[in-house]
Design brief:
Oligomer: single chain
Number of strands: 6
Helix content: 25-40%
Number of domains: 1
Strand order of the largest sheet: 1-2-3-4-6-5
Strand content: 25-35%
Structural class: alpha+beta
Largest sheet: 6 strands, antiparallel
Shape: globular
Radius of gyration: 13 Å
CATH topology: Aspartate Aminotransferase, domain 1
Order of helices and strands: HEEEEHEEH
Number of helices: 3
CATH class: Alpha Beta
């Protein structure tokens, strides 16, 4: 499955030149790793966001957000945000911050 290069580029712009963030192709998309931990990524034209188990219920309650199921099985602590929900740059930035903040709480890899 191809991923939205346009969305990936929008993420790159918002992350900037953070030395702790590395981009990596995986799962047929692209992921952005914060200190070695996956924080956000692009799957198709949707944004994958690592929200953690404690942040899951609040995240999934937002309109345009759904479970992330890579193989038909829900990935706990992850959500997908649809393209309409992140059409505005401020909305995209907010979701990127959620993923980056969560990944930043994990031990570096």
């Amino acid at each position: 499955m191809a991923y939205s290069e346009e969305l990936a580029q929008r993420i790159r712009v918002r992350i900037g030149s953070n030395p702790n963030v590395v981009e990596k192709k995986m799962f047929g998309g692209v992921a952005f790793m914060n200190q070695g931990n996956m924080a956000v990524g692009v799957s198709g034209n949707e944004l994958m966001v690592r929200v953690g188990l404690e942040g899951y219920d609040a995240a999934i309650a937002d309109p345009g957000v759904r479970d992330f199921d890579l193989t038909g099985k829900r990935m706990k602590g992850w959500v997908l945000v649809d393209s309409q929900t992140i059409a505005a740059n401020n909305d995209l930035r907010g979701w990127i911050n959620v993923g980056m903040d969560f990944a930043g709480t994990l031990p570096p890899k």
